[in-house]
Amino acid sequence: MDLYRKALILGGFLLLSSPLPVSHAVVTTTITSDGTLGTTISQSGTLYNINGGTIKGSNLFQSFTLFSVGTGDIASFNGPNGIVNILSRVTGGQQSLIDGTLRSTISGANLYLLNPAGVLFGANARLDLSGSFHVSTADYLKFTDGAKFFVDLANANTVLSVEPVATFGFLGPNPAAITFQGSALSVDVGKTISVVGGDIKLEGGTPSVGPFRGATLTAQSGLISVAGVASAGEVFLSTLESAPNVNGDTFTALGSIELSQNSGIDISGNGGGTVLIRGGRLRIDSGRVLALNAGSGQSSEVQVTGDSLELSNGGRISTSTIGDGPGGAITVTVTGSISMDGMGSSLFSRTTQNGAAGSVTVTARTLGMTGGAQINTSADGAFGTNGPGGPVTVNATTISITGAGTGLFSNARAGSGRGGDISINAGTLTLTGGARIDSSTGHETNVPGVGTIISGSGPGGNVTITASDSVVLSDGAVISANSVAFGRAGNIVIQAGDSYESRDSSVTTATAQSAGGNISIQARRLVHLVNSEIITNVKGGFGNSGNITIDPQFVILDSSKIIASAIGGNGGNINITAGVFLASPDSIIDASSSLGISGTISIQAPLSNLSGALAPLPQEFLQVASLLSARCAARMSGKTSSFVLAGRDGLPPRPGGLLPSPLTSKAAAAFSAKELGKNDQASQVSPSKLSFGDEPRVRVLLALSSQRPAPDVLESECR
Fold it and tell me: From the centroid of its chain, how far is CA 226?
């Protein structure tokens, strides 16, 4: 199997789908000249020759009243050598139906088809060109010298230019759609396909011979540009950026772009291609955008810009590499939401050989991932390969990742390539239901009759999470940079903003034999672990464990573990700095080493090495009047007195906050200055392990409040 075919399979090119009925009228060829530019049409059987037209420099202009090509027929654009661009317009106000072949006999010439009434390509549509192909429902073309070629014959501002095309111009609020139904359009290696119109759809269709299939646009190692607009403005041909049109209007809305029913956009080859997609609502439902590198060429790239993006039912964007060339970059920028749902729905830029995986950069207001959807830039090569994983960067206000198999991955598996780095910048990050953020290294293979074979020597990548509000893990969620083989584990840094909360979940940089990575978790207010783990231990060999640093105002361990232990190597250091440290009796902090030097456990807090419990506050506030044992004596004499209590001593500063019991102040007072230290800090240090089941020196009760905050001043008057 050749590399290119392998690339197609790797990228999900061969997807299965149940045939869906697509009904459309029988297409017959109707090509007529409008008589304005000298266009002539002659028929010979199924061949329709298009000659004449008007030549300006290297541009050949053609003009039609109607332009449709029936099933099995050929529309052949002819002209002299030296023509670079064939610019054709359809002025009759009827949609063009293309179910045959568009051909150019002019070597290297680019073909433009412009019809503001819309264009539909059927399942039998083909291209037979040696140049590029551009189709649009724009109202005019603007050239680099500013001249314009209008479709409307009543517009007297048309000027036929010798320059190349610069932009597509739209004048109305509702540009017509361009639809591909089972079409298979392709151009030569390195050439371009551009589609610029209203709503753009690639969907399934049934050709005259063969089964139902999705539509495909293919430009091997070339450029495919797709732009959907829903208002007036101009689109640059080369970049899809917008500009004001001839009336000064700039786009206020963009059109939808949809790939469904196994349809695809494909620039796979030996690298060097580009896919540009710009629209409003972008939807890939069981479709694909592929920019795979099967050789040693330079990387490809995919740029997606829009209002929102939906990937579902295996919809994917892939710039992976299976050769020595690097994978491409995927950049997704939307102003609204990104939704990824279902197994196979993914942003992929993996490597299976020696080429480096590409990068994935995602920017959105919200990112939601469910049902096995992935962002993956892993190094998945076999033994002997050294391609590293690529970086993953996610920027979003709200990130929610749910379900087993769902998450962000940039692993290094059996080869020697390094895992990629994962960087997340968010307001709130939520992982639940077995979701993962994973930049681990190594691979385990179970061989019948042999046992488990461990492979992989590349180091793991680093995971960096910065949240302005909170990080929440629950129900088996995992953040990891582990090593199950011989490579060093990566590091994990979590800056959780206000709070880090973990329930039945884990953060790990553990290793089987190599050195463990470091873990740092910082929050302004709270680090709360319930039946959870923070682990950077080494399970075997002579590798040293990593270090763990935790630094919030409150640390609460409820049936949880913090472990930086080792076997043959040294244990790691565990440093916890907090205002209050509370651990349940069954919680464990362990930095021991069986054969090496145990690490150091340092807990610095005014109240440390404690065992306690959590209790809810009452749901109702007490009435102030009921707390007064007697009325104000001054009332009996007719005078007015007042009772004022200032401050927040009775409730936490914010709903959901934590507040030490009044018992803590009494307990703290019991300590001598020597015990608390000159700076009112208590420090517990252990060379190996802390268990909180023994009788503690001080018991502390912390209250979790869900009530509204109390007023700053509580005032009661007697009159």
Answer: 20
Check: CB of residue 581 under 8 Å from CB of residue 558.
no
What angle is formed at CA 204 by the lines to CA 207 and CA 139, rounded to 5 degrees?
95
> Model-level pTM?
0.83
CB 232 within 8 A of CB 247: yes
Backbone angles phi, psi at 8, to 5 degrees: -65, -40
Question: Which DSSP string corresponds to 198-257?
Answer: SSEEEE-B--SSS--B--EEEETTSEEEEEEBSSSEEEETTT--EE--TTS---S-B--E
Q: For residue 527, give the nearest of 478, 575, 471, 574 by alpha carbon.
A: 471
Query: Which residues share a beta bridge with 59?
Result: 56, 85
Give per-residue pLDDT as tens, 652-704. Answer: 655 655 555 554 444 444 433 334 344 444 444 454 666 665 433 333 333 33
Q: CA torsion 208→211→214→216, rounded to 10°? A: -60
Rounded Cα distance, 277 and 193, in Å: 12
Distances (CA, A) of 378 to 270, 361, 371, 510, 517: 20, 14, 20, 19, 19
Indicate the residue type of 290: L
What distance in Å separates the CA atoms of residue 661 and residue 565, rounded to the nearest whole number?
Answer: 34
CA–CA separation, 136 and 229 (whole Å): 11
The Cα–Cα gap between 378 and 211 comes to 35
Question: What residue type is 545 in one-letter code?
Answer: S
Count other C-beta atoms under 10 Å from residue 537's C-beta: 25
